[in-house]
Amino acid sequence: MIFLTRKAEFSAAHFYWIDSWSQEENERVFGKCANRNGHGHNYTVEVTVGGEVDPVNGFVVDLKELKDILDREVVSVYDHRHLNYEVPEFRTAIPTTENIAIAIWNRLEGKIPKAHLHRVRLYETHDLFADYYGELDGE
Amino acid sequence: MIFLTRKAEFSAAHFYWIDSWSQEENERVFGKCANRNGHGHNYTVEVTVGGEVDPVNGFVVDLKELKDILDREVVSVYDHRHLNYEVPEFRTAIPTTENIAIAIWNRLEGKIPKAHLHRVRLYETHDLFADYYGELDGE
Amino acid sequence: MIFLTRKAEFSAAHFYWIDSWSQEENERVFGKCANRNGHGHNYTVEVTVGGEVDPVNGFVVDLKELKDILDREVVSVYDHRHLNYEVPEFRTAIPTTENIAIAIWNRLEGKIPKAHLHRVRLYETHDLFADYYGELDGE
Amino acid sequence: MIFLTRKAEFSAAHFYWIDSWSQEENERVFGKCANRNGHGHNYTVEVTVGGEVDPVNGFVVDLKELKDILDREVVSVYDHRHLNYEVPEFRTAIPTTENIAIAIWNRLEGKIPKAHLHRVRLYETHDLFADYYGELDGE
Amino acid sequence: MIFLTRKAEFSAAHFYWIDSWSQEENERVFGKCANRNGHGHNYTVEVTVGGEVDPVNGFVVDLKELKDILDREVVSVYDHRHLNYEVPEFRTAIPTTENIAIAIWNRLEGKIPKAHLHRVRLYETHDLFADYYGELDGE
Amino acid sequence: MIFLTRKAEFSAAHFYWIDSWSQEENERVFGKCANRNGHGHNYTVEVTVGGEVDPVNGFVVDLKELKDILDREVVSVYDHRHLNYEVPEFRTAIPTTENIAIAIWNRLEGKIPKAHLHRVRLYETHDLFADYYGELDGE
Questions:
Q1: Which residues 6+ apart lie within 8 Å of E41 measured at CB?
Q2: How many CB atoms lie within 10 A of CB B114?
Q3: Residues near C76 by Cβ (< 8 Å), separated by ≥ 6?
């Protein structure tokens, strides 16, 4: 068993807001992130897959294929988008670092041939990131 | 003469759009950046000041003062904001990397005691940045 | 279950020395670190907490609260300090990368509401770091 | 139990090629990596060891000793080498990121006094890395 | 006048060798780089262009066009190549960091519309880089 | 003319203090840096030299020689030292980022064969650095 990790980047806008709360309540909990004009980040996602190394070609996963899946399922949907307005899963869930990591997991799970998805790490800034291992996996 | 550089970061949303152009023209020139919902970045600004080292305290500029000026004049105005909607200079100028660098220069010029402003470098992503030295300074 | 990691930085001085050893023995084991004038580092600490994402606000932990705890319990005590002389736990324990990671864990454990402390990672330089998961946690 | 990680770097050339395949098949699977003139990378290896902190000196492992082992067993063998032509294990195995991580594990296992080898992480570029925990260790 | 910088990366193999010198002389001057099997690097190139900001679109240069030129003239020629064997300018000149920076300048000069080429910076590793400003430009 | 830059690192302790000032005055000007127990940093120095590329070997400077000079003149004197107590030039000058950059320049000037010293850049942290070009050089 070996783990391979590929990084990708996307730039997106978001804000944090709960409709059923007052402006004051939203600002108290979410601070500057409650600004409904939105702000944004250069997000970095690290996708880790695990599996056996193919004894012939030395790969646990076809890197080109992994990159294509990541581009198609995540980057093309999130990059240069306003997450709250344009990405379906964030119409109901707030696009926090945690929720984006989970959403990326859900978009990738079951789509990677031969290897299994082990972890999604999402950096919002260089000093804040979330790790998600799926529903059953402990670390 | 010595130069001192301080970095600061802010997260903001923006988009590129010219009202007098058609949707097609905007998309042809600005690509994905023409999405008017906005997207965003973790911007990094490097402010370089030049001057003589004070022979008593060894400083070219008071670092605490430089940080306060940078926070007050730039970071507090740009951070967690939508540049197109909330920052006055980008109601008319498109918030490109180049224009943001120039705008930061204009916000800081003449406000730094003892040292002169030498350069503003603005990173939009880790692989794209603009340098501005003011109107008269060559490099 | 999801994990959230926040980084913080502090600059501190330290040295390695055991009083009951001779100068030669200290230098043999600790090399240049045995210089009792001290040297120093820009330390980076990564604090990882684990828990369930709150279905309402999308957070595993209140980030502002986590930052305040980290500042109060760790950064304000260690930053711009000489670890051997000014931080109580290093009057007896040598402030190695390993021992600082454990000390930070002990300072934070039980103080984070809702989430549990999962890991403390401490970088002494960019190419050396220690990870501590507490006494009972395997990785 | 605590984990300590040390990074090291080496620059090497490699290519991907299977003799029993045609040129077309090699290029289809390995893309630009099938160029038999070779290309190269600045590899970064992170070696993580686990163990108990020595209550006297505060170390889980002697850092100087760990660095010497890493230099002798890995860096001096791989640095400024063509992996396919000059490193024995890659005469038969293709030097993929995965296989190099495993090879480094095999070179280090059993050679580190007091601590056990926990993980070898190998970066081929800043956005691609493999993690290996040995044959029996899960993460 | 403003300066815009774009980074790009390529992975390549190279070695240092002068045919008219003996093996000993080559090794004395070039050390481990004289290994004719080649070794390699992840090179990073930063291309800086200077010019006036277009008052309409806010650009000093069309970024998409700059990226295309850089890909076509440099990355597609150098990436995953053995510089000594496959890139014409290094059949005669040794592919040192200095010479690669100059070669990239020569490949780009005169090809960038509207802006002028100001500087080529080439990183061979994170701690070694060369800057070239062309034949007439001082810094 | 081309410029070559080499980075090196050292870890050192320092503090800011003027004997003829009161404790209050020192703390007002220097803040936390006035703690006379000292604190410390991982400093990074970038040394840039300029010259002509040797048409035979492709070097502006012998890299091995540059590294040896940098190690001998700077790193071996500053690394794992308390700058205020152990480095002669900081018995009188306060070891600010600015003054350390100048001191490194003075230690290196005139010692580099064939190329001239162009710039010394000193990072105290990743977000603060000083650049010195000598007494006569403008940027």
A1: D11, D40, D41, D42, E11, E12, E14, E124, E125
A2: 13
A3: none
Tell me how close the Cα of C36 comes to any Cα of chain F, in angstroms: 9
Task: Give, for C11, the enclosing helix (H) or strand (E).
Answer: strand C2-14
- Whether C and B touch, i.e. at least 3 CB pairs below 8 A, reads as no
Q: Is C9 a catalytic residue?
A: no
Q: How are beta strands D81-82 and D2-14 bridged, if at all? A: parallel
Per-residue confidence band for B118, with pLDDT thresholds at 50, 70 and 90: very high
Cα separation, A65 vs A71, in Å, equals 10
Bin B2: left if φ > 0, else alpha if -120 < ψ < 50, else beta: beta
Residue F21 lies in a domain: yes
Contact C41 F40 (CB under 8 A): yes
- The catalytic residue positions of B are 33, 80, 124
Active site residue C24: no
Please give the structure tokens belonging to residue A61. Answer: 């996963």
- Cα separation, C40 vs C12, whole angstroms: 5
Residue with more model confidence, F136 or E62: E62
Q: Angle at Cα F101 formed by Cα F15 and Cα F39, nearest 5°? A: 20
Produce one character per residue of D58-92: b if its CB has 16 or more CB atoms within 10 Å, e if not.
Answer: bbbbbbeebbebbeebbbebbbbbbbbebbebbee
Best A2, A136, A137 residue to mutate vs chain D (most D CBs within 10 Å): A2
Q: For residue range B73-98, what is the model confidence (pLDDT) as tens digits?
A: 999 999 999 999 999 999 989 999 99
pLDDT tens track for A89-100: 999 899 999 999
Pairwise CA distance, residues D66 & D113, whole Å:
9
Q: What is the tens place of the pLDDT at every residue in D41-50?
A: 999 999 999 9
Beta strands in chain F (DSSP E): 2-14, 39-51, 81-82, 116-125, 128-132
Confidence category of residue E102, pLDDT binned at 50, 70, 90: very high
The residue count of chain E comes to 139
The 10s digit of each residue's pLDDT in C33-49 is 999 999 999 999 999 99
The domain that contains F41 carries what CATH number?
3.30.479.10
Number of domains in chain F: 1
Residues of E with CB under 8 A from a CB of B: 1-8, 48, 53, 56-60, 62-64, 118, 139
> Chain D residues contacting E, CB < 8 Å?
9, 11-14, 32-33, 35, 37-42, 79-82, 85-86, 125-126
Q: Å from E10 to nearest chain D CA?
A: 9
Is residue F127 in some structural domain?
Answer: yes
Beta bridge partners of C42: C11
Does D138 or E76 have the greater pLDDT score?
E76
For residues B109 and B115, give the distance between their C-alpha atoms in angstroms, rounded to a whole number: 11
Which domain does B56 fall in, by range? 2-132
Contact C93 D7 (CB under 8 A): no
Cβ separation A130–C60 shorter than 8 A: yes
Query: Cβ distance B108 to B71 under 8 Å?
Result: no
Structural domain includes residue E137: no
Q: What is the pLDDT of residue A136?
A: 64
pLDDT tens readout for residues C71-97: 999 999 999 999 999 999 999 899 999
Smallest Cβ–Cβ distance between A57 and the set D29, D102, D128 belongs to: D29
ipTM of the complex: 0.94
Considering the domain boundaries, does residue D49 fall inside one? yes
How many CB atoms within 10 Å of residue E59? 24
Say if strands E81-82 and E2-14 run parallel, antiparallel, or are unpaired: parallel
Which is it for strands D116-125 and E2-14: parallel, antiparallel or unpaired?
Answer: unpaired
Min distance E135 CA to chain D CA atoms (Å): 30
Q: What is residue E57's three-state secondary structure?
A: coil
- D130 — pLDDT class (breaks 50, 70, 90): very high
Taking the CA of residue E53 and the nearest CA in chain D, the distance in Å comes to 33
Q: Do E57 and B94 touch (CB under 8 A)?
A: yes
Count Cβ atoms below 10 Å from residue C8 Cβ, excluding itself: 19
